[in-house]
Amino acid sequence: MNLRIGWVNLNQLITYRLSYYSKILPLKKPITIKDLAKSLNISVATVSRALRNSSEINEETKQAVLKLAKEMDYHPNLLARGLSSKKSKILGVVVPTINRQFWSNSISGIENIAYQDGYKVMIFQSTESFIKEVEIVETLANSRVDGILIAFSKETKDYAHVQQVMDRGIPVVLFERVCEELETSKVVTDDFFGAKKITQHLISRGKNNIAYLGGPMSLGVCKDRFLGFQSAMTDAGLNIPAEHIIETEEFTFENAKNGIYQLWNTKNKPDAIFCFADILAIGALDACKELGIKVPEQLSIAGFGNDDTSRFVSPSITTMAQPSFEIGQLAAKLILEEITAGNEVTILKKEVIQPTLVIRESS
Amino acid sequence: MNLRIGWVNLNQLITYRLSYYSKILPLKKPITIKDLAKSLNISVATVSRALRNSSEINEETKQAVLKLAKEMDYHPNLLARGLSSKKSKILGVVVPTINRQFWSNSISGIENIAYQDGYKVMIFQSTESFIKEVEIVETLANSRVDGILIAFSKETKDYAHVQQVMDRGIPVVLFERVCEELETSKVVTDDFFGAKKITQHLISRGKNNIAYLGGPMSLGVCKDRFLGFQSAMTDAGLNIPAEHIIETEEFTFENAKNGIYQLWNTKNKPDAIFCFADILAIGALDACKELGIKVPEQLSIAGFGNDDTSRFVSPSITTMAQPSFEIGQLAAKLILEEITAGNEVTILKKEVIQPTLVIRESS
DNA sequence: TTGTAGGCGTTATCAT
DNA sequence: ATGATAACGCCTACAA
Questions:
Q1: Closest of B29, B7, B32, B33 to residue B18, by C-alpha
Q2: Among B261, B313, B252, which residue's Cα sits nearest to residue B283?
Q3: What residues 262-301 of chain A have any CB closer than 8 A to a CB of chain B?
Q4: Closest CA to A327 of A99, A98, A109, A97
Q5: What per-residue confidence (pLDDT) applies to A11?
Q6: Quick one: chain A helix, strand, coil %, rounded to 5?
Q7: How far is CA B224 from CA A244, B159, B236, B241, B275, in A?
Q8: How many CB atoms sit inside 10 A of residue B332's CB?
Q9: Rg, Å, chain A Cα set
Q10: Which of A76, A103, A119 is where one domain is finished?
């Protein structure tokens, strides 16, 4: 035991491997309600009722069943249960990635509500890939989950895969990354007003030459935030020169830095910048340090999302806080409503949630 | 449509709700292989074979089946498939939280390997709760997943729930937060040497009065990192006064700040600090700013984990990079090996992965 | 290559 | 309150 066998190279990492012991999977046959029934000389139906504490059962027999079940180490087979009952008590969630606070927080919100109603949550990430998203949605549907919550990948422009699932009678709720085409309940952030509000804040700080750094306008969220920004500028009678609008395909630290370098090469330098997401704001901040630009004196920076990081950097970043946990909760509530309604009429709702302004040092 | 109904107060957020349209779930009965068989006047067995492109089937009939399946919008019922085949092609993953880079990255690593073999991954978070962890593991087992990957919650000291699942014949692999008691394959970071290495780095920078800021020693990882730290100090003939060892129950920004304030109140002030995790290092850095402590001149700071944030703050944080993605990949490989082995002998392995030193401005 | 039939573990619908 | 028994949708010997 714990005998060192040798050195192994794993993706350029030195790893050492300790051999343990060998193992063979045990192949005990699982106990079923049939076994319980036989042992107690009663029918499987009765056992089944006892296990789901149905109303129509004698208290004593029920206790006897439960006792034996524990003794014999019985565990229900959820596949069989689902197959026969047509209910899984499972919600499926599809998000672009779990590796960002907004998404992981909203998932926590979903779980929070789901668990209260005895639902489990299956999480899948599309990794911003349309093909993978389609696969996942299909798998989820084929696994007979009771409902599916989706935030679309960046690539997703076609919603047939979701429509198809809806046609199969599976409730769907969209959140954050939604679309107009589908007739479902939706939960979104008010991106337009959020962007407008934070832009107005910058203006109120005396800035009047504000640039925009964001993602592709083809993505709904990006467009909405830009429109909000634009609206605030227009309302204030301010102009947005074309070279002050920078679009990056991906939201990365590095792209943001490049954006600032690009901006600082124009002869009409901005005095503030509104970034589509916090990660961009943080990249912008880093570029400013390299270029010796004083924040916020020379350039104010504003982000969106209120990621933890926006608080930790220095100067800390002014941003719009999105209530991600609550968005998840709300989405879960909506889908549970629909599930509960079953074949009754449900009212589809669109919930638009207001982000809140968090003023920090960068403005 | 789009008729505004009213204002709703959700957790102190102003939300407005747009009524959409009402909806009734359609209740079409799903197509089954039986339906396909009937339509083609062949047996269900043949259809089944065609769908899983078994070798023993005529190419023409197979094509006919596939064509009809598409036409009739057939979708396999995974519950039924799993029930009868006893294979789900699903891996279950249990992590403390998905809301931290290390965990979300390792999940991505797991998915990366799993998808190559046609496995899907079900993600669950225990939220550091033992009870929830037990529930999840039980659910996973009852859902007949093909294997379970677990990183224990902080609270978990008793491993009966996992042993039980193993006894049921379900392969289990532990990663990162593991235990000695269970006879499974395991993948861990070399915390001892990682901590030792980064401490030695601090020493090589001329620091000789290094403090430690970390979690409860009851948690294996915490202890290992502390021991590595201690070992480096001892090797260098350096002393660690008791007041330079600070334990925090939770790894938060605020706790770390308090730790630094506490340290700076002792008369023997340290000239460097090794923090158990990056988030603590970042908190420490913030406290330094508030206290006017120059980093790294007066106090060097080192973290562990290489979270994105450690790169974004200024000065950026020296840290140990844990190859989280690779750890996930490895864990997935190990469990797939075990699954594939089935009732053959498997060799259980313990893989110890070396973190790498990332030197940045804070040292 | 195809068909028959039994089984997977549970729930649901009848009776009793 | 309990028991038979037929689904649920698919897989898999075994037989043809």
A1: B7
A2: B252
A3: 282, 286, 289
A4: A109
A5: 42
A6: 45, 20, 35
A7: 51, 20, 18, 19, 13
A8: 30
A9: 27
A10: A76
Confidence of residue B17 (pLDDT cuts 50, 70, 90): low
Residues B313 and B228 in one domain: yes
Pairwise pLDDT comparison (B54 vs B278), residue with the higher score: B278
Question: In which residue are the tokens 């991505």 written?
Answer: B108
**Cβ A259 vs Cβ A278: under 8 Å:** no
Strand partners for A149: A93, A173
Examine the fold and report which residue of A12, A47, A76 is the final residue of a domain before the chain moves on: A76
Same domain, B104 and B222: no
How many Å from the N-terminal Cα to the C-terminal Cα in chain B?
A: 61
Asked whether residue A217 falls in the same domain as residue A276, the answer is yes
**What integer pLDDT is reported at residue A27 of this predicted model?**
65
- pLDDT greater than 60 at residue B2: no
CA pair distance B43, B47, nearest whole angstrom: 7
Residue B338 near chain A (CB below 8 Å): yes
A343 touches chain B (CB under 8 A): yes
Question: Is B309–A312 a contact, with Cβ atoms under 8 angstroms apart?
Answer: yes
pLDDT at position B194 over 90: yes
Average pLDDT of span B43-69: 90
Is residue A81 domain-resident? no
Helix, strand, or coil here: B121? strand
- The reply to whether A301 and A232 lie within a common domain is yes
Q: What is the pLDDT of residue B347?
A: 86
Number of domains in chain A: 3
Structure tokens at A133: 């998203």
| A327 in reach of chain B (CB within 8 A) | no
Give me the pLDDT at residue B343, please.
75
B309 with A314: Cβ contact below 8 A? no
A114-128, A301-315, B8-22, B141-155: range with lowest mean pLDDT: B8-22
Same domain, A175 and A214: no
A280 and A341, same domain (yes or no): no
- Chain A, residues 90-119, CB within 8 A of chain B, namely 97-99, 101, 104-105, 107-108, 111
C-alpha–C-alpha distance, residues A66 and A60, integer Å: 10
Phi then psi for residue A321, to 5 deg, are: -85, 120
Give the per-residue pLDDT at B82.
95
Which site among A29, A74, A79, A326 would you substitute to test the B interface, given the most B Cβ atoms closer than 10 Å to its Cβ?
A79
What is the percent of chain B where pLDDT is above 70? 93
Within a domain: residue B14? no
Which CATH number is A31's domain given? 1.10.260.40
**Which pLDDT does position B250 carry in this prediction?**
86
Amino acid identity, position B111: E
Is the distance from CB of A355 to CB of A189 less than 8 angstroms?
Answer: yes
What's at A237, amino acid-wise? G
pTM listed for this prediction: 0.89
Under-50 pLDDT residues of chain A: 1-12, 14
Question: Quick count: other Cβ atoms within 10 Å of Cβ B194?
Answer: 25
Residue A5 lies in a domain: no
Pairing of strands B13-24, B3-10: antiparallel
Residue B258, domain CATH: 3.40.50.2300
B59 and B169 together in one domain: no
Do B248 and B348 fall into the same domain?
Answer: no
What residue has token string 């780095």? Answer: B201
Triad A115, B145, A164: Cα angle to 5°: 70
DSSP class of B243: G
Establish if B112 belongs to a structural domain. yes
The pLDDT confidence band at residue B19, using thresholds 50, 70 and 90, is low
Q: Which domain holds residue B210?
A: 191-321
Using a CB-CB distance cutoff of 8 angstroms, which residues of chain A are in contact with residue B73?
164
pLDDT in tens, B297-356: 999 999 999 998 999 998 999 999 999 999 999 999 999 999 998 877 788 999 999 999
Residue B314's pLDDT is what? 87
